[in-house]
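Two proteins follow. First one:
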Amino acid sequence: MNAAENRLVCLVMILAFWGPAAPRLAAQDMLDVAAGQMATGQTADARVLVGSAVESATSPKQRNRALLYQAYLETDEDSASTRLELVTGLAAGQAEAISARERLGDLAFSRGEYRQALTNWLKAADTAEILKNRQNLLAKAARARLRMNNPQQAIEILERALALGRSSEYGTLYYYSGVALLACGDPEKAAEQYLAAYRFAGNPYQLAALSRLVELYGRGKSAHARQWRNRLIESTAGTVFDPAEVSSTTDRLAGPPGTYSIQLGAFSSLSRARAQAESLKHQGFDPVVLPAGSDGLYRVRILGLASRLEADEVVKKLKKNGFSYQLLSPEG
């Protein structure tokens, strides 16, 4: 018997023993059990408990929580919105109301109703007390402004969010600041924000920020541009992405047209490919491990060599250090 079932057995015993005095405790217990069921995907059982909790709730807080859970469990979007609106009216300023407002914004955004989404997210942000939650809501509001083609207003919202203080949402705020600034025609400031997002540890938009930096700077033939491309390729190596899709992306990022590359090995094992790359780095080279191709092999290459003269210089060093290699021309 699992923990949720144990709690249900206890609940039944309490109801049988205490009779009329039990509903207040029963509603709270049912919601606690339902929360666990929702977290583990037992939605059918959760619906039964939540429905009973709505009927037996003896306080506005319990009823609001039960209605909020009902909205989350509702499969029909219109019915979910109706329940959420009810919660926002009953619990203004409370955690349940903030969650309901956020969810209403999410539903509106998914329907393309960006103004309605913006209104709900801003209202929720105005009453959210936890810094991270408020900044998350403001980031969503900025996204709505971007979808409405109002990048300047998006920047204003993001500046407001950043001014609230540092939190784990900072990386997301930096990233969307970059998006908004680029939409305003300011690539230099956009790059600064993308770089800040890339450097912010644990940011879910870290790889997206790096990809944006490659778009801005990585297409050139300079060593700096090559470094950005290499960072992106290394960041995507060994991920769960589809190999064929990653290989296609890698081909686009390997370097601008007209550049040379040098292959130093192809391995069926990612660990062996990385070991080869490390040995090359110790000798002063700048290799990357490409994501596995459709043949399942991880290739170690030096990419983006701007000319045959530059490629030949690298080849000389490889020969001197005893490395095997294959020079790849721009034509393949």
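Second one, unrelated to the first:
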Amino acid sequence: MTTRRRGLSEDEARKAWRYAVETEFHSIDPSKVTEKQILGHGTEDRFLPFDHSVEKVWFTHSINANGQLLAIPDGNNVDIYDLDTGERTVMSGHISRVIKLRFSPTDPNCLVSWSETELRPNERHPEYNDIVIWNIREQQGLDQTRRPELIDNAAKAGVRAVEATLGPEMRMSMGERWDMRTLLNAIIKRNETRGRVPSTSRLDGRLNTMHHSPLFSNQGEYLIYLPGPEPWSNGDEHYDICLYNLSTRNTTTLSGHMDTIDWIGFSPDDSLIASASRDRAVRVHDLSGKEIWKWHGGLQNCGAVFSPDGKYLAALYSSGKLTVWDLISGEETEKYDTGLDTVSDTINWSPNGKYIVIGGDSDGWLRLFATSDGKLELLQERKLSLDQSILEIDDPNTRRTLSRFLSVHTSKFLPSSDSKESSMRLMYGVRVDQGVEVFDFETGKAWRFAPPCNDDGSIQMIAAGHGESAAVGYFWRKQKGEIGVIAPNGIRFWRLD
């Protein structure tokens, strides 16, 4: 008998997802049978515990170029973990919460991080909108220990100095002295924190990691950031892009956009920078700041990707449209309409240049396309369906709600751990599940990594350290052939090779 329902809990949605696969990916070679391995927490090859519970900031983490270090925000600080030993280095230099960070793709000791407050342009302080470029090796050699007694003694001395300078007429009560001392203490702490990083390693601006935008050029020579605070209005303000040379410290400004910039990225040879904005324009500049192409895109929330040979740019819109442009001629070579809402974080081009994958905002769907000369051919679809679920739901509103629970939040082809030119492993995740899957299109093998669930779909608590309720994120450590799943109490590693 069908059960009529008006609401659906997140645990119930998670339970439905576990059994609701309608169509699954399969090997490109039809002779190979798909094999799926379910790997829950407690089955990992190794577990690297944290010495304190990390903040749940989805996908705000980064692994360095040699696969040795992982960076995670921790309030105003950045924690650097050695992935082999678990040793933690705390880097202190921000005076507000760190919300974005990224390692250089080539220099394992170079990390950039950004902290932001809610202050608007007319009420902001430059130090509250802060980009820091870190040298990890230098920071590991510094004493990061706070000196609260020295700071407090300096604040006390400041109060005494004020009273001595103004003379007998300066009569403060005990409470007023305490207020002044507290204020001085906060100011000294703030500047002492900022003093840990030289001013030459700071930029006034914002980092854009929306839709998997790379912050560095492929060779690590340039850093992209957005200058100052975000403008107030949409449509009549300039939204510039800054191209910062890490060696010369020179900045080139790329102009033209008039609304929030959703995605920025470099061509494979670092000769071009493409950007997509909510002003519906896709622009391509060279390193001098000269605009090469401008195309009219689609609706808001655009993610994009260059082809591995640098000949094409593909853009995915939330409206479900996928467009491909030729970077030599400027011509549009393909426009594909999925007919469904998409997630712009999910567009990715395979390293061999033969395939594109995109993901959807409902039913956990992913589509794999073959691509040649800028043209697309749909090959496979992975999709979830309530009709395959163990839940019996006929209420349309509940079904729509559940469908949105199952949006794909990321998909990415993984670089090969054995330096093969061709890598056909795809990593992807569905929001409600708090896990990740990997599918190998060459062998037909699939791996699923997720917290163990109770019968009602709720995540089981792990009686280890601080316990856990969900994943914070995950990463591919190609040097070791490992998937790392970050939970609040540590990192779980599974080997795929």
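SUMMARY FIELD: The helical segments are 10-18, 136-140, 148-166, 174-194, 396-405. Residues 174-194 form the longest helix (21 residues).
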